[in-house]
Design a protein that fits this description.
Length: 517
């Protein structure tokens, strides 16, 4: 009888030890979900992308999917920059509409993108104060409202989120918006904070607005980063990239996709990761009603302001390929600039043109989408040599899709790629005649380029050689400036032109030719 009683006790004791062992093994295991988006650019309303017949996107649908995924697992929600500027839904309210919906969606943090600075530092400060989440940017000096990092306690884990934005931000932004700001090396900055935080937290996440390729370089240079959530390059990776022990993800653009990264963490270390992009379509998700109310409130205001028909285009106007080749929309805009200013030549950076205009009726909102920035026309005297230098600079970032590529009017030029040297300008004609390098020409551009934006030093050098040159509140003055309409945005000039024309038809004319094509 004694032996029979001891056996159950023995097994009960073993079972107790087994339970303790299992608890010890799995008690430190955590499963967390990271939801992320980037390069929203205010595209709150679902739409048909250029040359697509399918309606995609819609932030209300994306928010509905976020709700569903949050119910499945403990989740955090991050944004990797360029959220408040781009589409009319954001631009007409200087990003206030975007922050309102992000608050409703309960974002946990965002990094500033280069376009967060487009409305100026004063507006950015207002948006930061309105946000119920931190704006991050560890490599930004001069704006105290931007935090270098934030630490979040989540599911028993201590998570550090560090933000970095491209150090080329001053090239993309209007110089007047960069006064007093400094953008440090993302790699050096992240390395400093990782070394400081690594022993104090379980997981280090970098919210990055430097581009997918640069994210890979960052992971190679800086050890100790667990996850990089990226933006800026509008990349749509099939799955996450793994560089060493660093996981890299990005989620395309315009709320067309939601990034989902599922992690298993044991003893403060990531032991497993799986990721995917969820396409956002009205047919695949339910709306978040609260977000939908925000979208509709601002949509009605936009429509009231911009829905009036101003004219008609007999052809679709291409605003998508403006960073790589001549387009008919680039031709239209530069022709209008040249005509309005009386210049001999007009140039505009492709990055200033942000959307296409479809064939048919043209509304004011279409022009606002195509030209979202607050730029005005400036005409400057440049020598033929300086014009060539500007064209060379415009070609210098073609392989990276840089926005500095120039759309042109009043001149034609050809270029060829040289092995290891990049594209080089060959023949240039102004008004059908070979350019004279010692002669001065009147060149119309936007105030962004005239002030040296996108790295166009040639304009700045020409202006600084002017008598009585000055920059006062963003307004340019000097005897090299022939035309300077600071009181009228370029987009409003374009709207006026289309209204007067009634109907337009613009073609690609061979103004920019690649030798060999």
């Amino acid at each position: 009888m004694l032996k029979i009683k001891k056996i159950p006790l023995f097994f009960a004791y073993c079972l107790f030890l087994l339970v303790l062992f299992i608890h010890a093994v799995y008690a430190e295991q955590r499963e967390i979900r990271i939801l992320h988006m980037n390069d929203f650019h205010g595209f709150a309303i679902e739409y048909k992308p250029f040359r697509s017949d399918e309606v995609l996107g819609g932030i209300s649908y994306l928010a509905g999917l976020v709700d569903k995924l949050r119910q499945e697992k403990p989740s955090v929600l991050f944004a990797a920059g360029d959220m408040i500027q781009g589409n009319n839904w954001a631009n007409l309210f200087q990003g206030k509409s975007v922050i309102e919906l992000m608050n409703v969606m309960r974002f946990d943090a965002m990094v500033v993108g280069n376009h967060e600075f487009d409305f100026g530092q004063g507006v950015l400060k207002e948006r930061i104060l309105e946000a119920k989440f931190p704006f991050l940017g560890a490599n930004v000096e001069g704006l105290s409202q931007i935090q270098p990092y934030t630490i979040k306690m989540f599911e028993g884990l201590k998570i550090a989120i560090i933000g970095v934005v491209t150090e080329d931000t001053p090239l993309y932004a209007h110089p007047k918006n960069m006064v007093g700001l400094k953008f440090l090396s993302p790699a050096e900055t992240v390395d400093k904070y990782v070394k400081d935080l690594r022993s104090k937290v379980d997981i280090i996440i970098v919210l990055s607005h430097i581009g997918f390729h640069n994210d890979m370089e960052l992971a190679n240079k800086v050890k100790g980063i667990d996850v990089i959530i990226g933006g800026h390059s509008h990349t749509k990776p099939v799955r996450h990239m793994l560089i060493g022990k660093t996981i890299i993800v990005q989620a395309w653009e315009h709320a067309l996709a939601l990034g989902v990264l599922d992690l298993i963490v044991e003893d403060g270390k990531i032991t497993h990761a799986s990721s995917r992009l969820e396409d956002i379509k009205p047919t695949l998700a339910k709306k978040n009603k609260a977000v939908s109310l925000v979208v509709e409130k601002y949509r009605r205001s936009v429509e009231a302001a911009l829905n009036g028909v101003i004219g008609e285009t007999e052809v679709s106007l291409d605003g998508e390929n403006v960073r790589a080749r001549e387009t008919n929309l680039g031709n239209l805009i530069t022709d209008i600039m040249r005509q309005r200013s009386g210049a001999e030549v007009a140039v505009i950076n492709g990055g200033a043109i942000r959307a296409s205009i479809k064939k048919g009726k043209v509304r004011a909102g279409d022009v606002y989408s195509a030209l979202p920035f607050d730029n005005y026309i400036v005409a400057v005297r440049l020598t033929g040599t300086q014009i060539k230098e500007a064209l060379e600079h415009g070609l210098s970032a073609m392989e990276d899709g840089g926005g500095r590529f120039l759309q042109v009017s009043g001149l034609t030029f050809s270029y060829a790629s040289s092995a290891g040297k990049g594209p080089g300008v060959k023949k240039i004609f102004v008004a059908g005649k070979p350019i004279m390098f010692n002669k001065e020409y009147v060149v119309a551009t936007n105030d962004f380029l005239a002030a040296g934006g996108d790295g166009y030093k040639v304009f700045g050098e020409a202006l600084k050689a002017s008598k009585d040159f000055s920059v006062n509140g963003g307004a340019l003055k000097g005897d090299k400036i022939v035309y300077n309409d600071a009181g009228r945005w370029l987009r409003d000039v374009v709207i006026e032109y289309i209204k007067n024309a009634g109907k337009i038809s613009v073609e690609v004319e061979g103004r920019i030719k690649k030798i060999g094509d």
